[in-house]
Structure formats: structure tokens, C-alpha cells
């Protein structure tokens, strides 16, 4: 039984006979997308973990793409009717959009077990544990026999618009060169499953022999990495023409 952002008003904090609960089915998975307090935030969804596994995409409160200005949201690509509906309850309705996207992405929407969204964002809960990560949405029940805890909170990030799934990578870059410079470092991944756009790994003072790490949520599952594109820029013309390279780049895929 999949709960798509189960309702908060009149249900949160009530006995299990009243609301959705993991005792209602052999396997209950929940997607929380609008769990900010109803007052004053107008959150429609329950915040408590009430299933066997509970997914909190983007932290479960504010979904990317829902902060657009009212005009651009109402005159949406999906038409005025869906745009108006999205404006009124955008976060709440993301739950079914993620679910429908999950049907066509069996390898997408990996939920990472974590104590909080902040810890997930900082990379504390990366990569997936030995038993793997469940997939939010249609294929969540593949994880049914791997649950070891009474409740399991899972975190992930999604895109702003369809297609919603993102794949998480840890990218570590050790720089080479002669002198430190100010600027930024970008990396793009190329692989058997596709290529990503450029992602910023670090910015500020770039020191040769230093190592910089970033967690990126890529719009494509690159599969087996075949190439990594490394780009650095110092933002302005430097008469000394400094040179920086990558001594090593390590890419770790969250799922394996």
C-alpha cells in the first residue's frame, strides 16, 4: 500500500485506527512531499513516519519547482488546469508525479537511510548500505524483505520538473599545479548510460595538492563511467597564466 503524501489536517497525531498506518497492509510505503505545519505553512501532508518505509524527497516539506512565481506556474506546460491546481497544492501533488515517474525509472529515486535531511545533504549517509537502498514509488516493495528496523526514514533529491529522478554521486578531486589561485572547479561525468551537465565541485581558493569533495545529484544514471571532464576557471584574466590540473578524480556511485 503506497501513501502519496497522506493528509495532515485531522489525521496527524491520531490513533492508528483513524489514519494510514503500517498495520494496514503487509507492506506500507509513504512519500512525504508537503509535511510543513498546516499553520502557518499550509502543509497538507503528515510528517510522522507511519509506514514500513517513509521517503522524504527534498526533505519532505518544500519541493523544487514549487517556488515559481504564480503566473509561470499557472500557465504551466501541462495547461492552465493543472497549473492552477499545482499553484494551490504544488508540494502535495508532487507525490503522485514522483510515483508516476518512478514507474518508468526502475533504477531511479533511491532513498538513502538517514537520521535527517541535513545529514543526507552533507553526505553523511552515502553510499547505500550493504542491503542497498529502496526505490521510492512503484518499485519500493522490492525492499520488503530487507527491512530491519521498526521504521525507516529515507532521503533523496529530485529534479524541478519532469523527468524527476536524480542519481547521487560523490566526486573527489585532488588538484595539481604550482600555485594557489581563486576560482572554481567543475566536473561532468560521461558513461555507458549517458552524460551529465557540469557540476561545481568547489569555489574559492584552489590549492594544488588539496582534495575537494562534492555530492552531486545528476539528471542521468551514467552507468559505467568512461570519462570525466574537468574544468577550472579563475573568473578573471590573470597575467601570470596560472595552470591547474586534476591529479586524481574519484567518482563513487551511491547505489553500488
TrEMBL record:
Q: Which UniProt keywords apply?
A: Cell projection, Cytoplasmic vesicle, Disulfide bond, Hydrolase, Lipid degradation, Lipid metabolism, Secreted
The protein's GO terms of the molecular function aspect are: galactolipase activity; lipoprotein lipase activity
Q: How does it sit in the membrane?
A: Peripheral membrane protein
Q: Which GO terms are recorded in the biological process aspect for this UniProt protein? A: lipid catabolic process
Q: In which pathway does it act?
A: Glycolipid metabolism; Glycerolipid metabolism; triacylglycerol degradation
Instruction: Give the reactions, separated by semicolons, that this protein catalyses.
Output: 1,2,3-tripropanoylglycerol + H2O = dipropanoylglycerol + propanoate + H(+); 1-(9Z-octadecenoyl)-glycerol + H2O = glycerol + (9Z)-octadecenoate + H(+); 1,2-dioctanoyl-3-O-beta-D-galactosyl-sn-glycerol + H2O = octanoyl-3-(beta-D-galactosyl)-sn-glycerol + octanoate + H(+); 1,2-dioctanoyl-3-O-[alpha-D-galactosyl-(1->6)-beta-D-galactosyl]-sn-glycerol + H2O = octanoyl-3-O-[alpha-D-galactosyl-(1->6)-beta-D-galactosyl]-sn-glycerol + octanoate + H(+)
State which residue ranges cross the membrane: none
Record's PROSITE patterns? Answer: PLAT (PS50095)
Cell inner membrane found in the keyword field: no
Q: Does the keyword Disulfide bond apply?
A: yes
| PLAT domain mapped to chain residues | 167-256
Superkingdom of source: Eukaryota
Q: Which family does it belong to?
A: Belongs to the AB hydrolase superfamily. Lipase family.
- Protein's UniProt name: Pancreatic lipase-related protein 2
Q: What high-level taxonomic lineage is stated for the organism?
A: Eukaryota, Metazoa, Chordata, Craniata, Vertebrata
Amino acid at each position: 500500500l503506497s501513501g502519496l503524501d497522506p493528509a495532515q489536517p485531522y489525521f496527524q497525531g491520531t490513533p492508528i485506527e483513524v489514519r494510514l498506518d503500517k498495520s494496514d497492509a503487509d507492506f506500507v510505503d509513504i512519500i512525504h512531499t508537503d509535511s510543513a505545519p498546516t499553520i502557518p505553512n499550509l502543509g497538507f501532508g503528515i510528517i510522522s513516519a507511519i509506514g514500513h518505509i517513509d521517503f522524504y524527497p527534498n526533505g519532505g516539506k518544500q519541493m523544487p519547482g514549487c517556488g515559481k512565481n504564480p503566473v509561470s506556474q499557472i500557465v504551466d506546460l501541462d495547461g492552465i488546469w493543472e497549473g492552477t491546481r499545482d499553484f494551490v497544492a504544488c508540494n502535495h501533488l508532487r507525490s503522485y508525479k514522483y510515483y508516476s515517474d518512478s514507474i518508468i525509472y526502475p533504477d531511479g529515486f533511491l532513498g538513502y537511510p538517514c537520521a535527517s535531511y541535513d545529514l543526507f545533504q552533507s553526505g553523511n549517509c552515502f553510499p547505500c548500505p550493504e542491503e542497498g537502498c529502496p526505490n521510492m514509488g512503484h518499485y519500493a516493495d522490492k525492499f520488503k524483505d530487507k527491512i530491519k528496523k521498526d521504521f525507516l526514514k529515507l532521503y533523496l533529491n529530485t529534479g524541478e520538473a519532469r523527468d524527476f529522478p536524480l542519481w547521487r554521486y560523490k566526486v573527489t578531486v585532488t588538484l595539481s599545479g604550482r600555485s594557489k589561485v581563486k576560482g572554481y572547479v567543475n566536473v561532468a561525468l560521461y558513461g555507458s548510460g549517458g552524460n551529465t551537465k557540469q557540476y561545481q565541485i568547489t569555489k574559492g581558493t584552489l590549492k594544488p595538492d588539496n582534495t575537494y569533495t562534492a555530492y552531486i545529484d545528476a539528471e542521468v544514471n551514467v552507468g559505467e563511467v568512461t570519462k570525466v571532464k574537468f574544468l577550472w576557471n579563475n573568473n578573471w584574466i590573470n597575467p601570470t597564466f596560472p595552470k591547474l590540473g586534476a591529479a586524481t578524480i574519484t567518482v563513487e556511485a551511491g547505489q553500488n
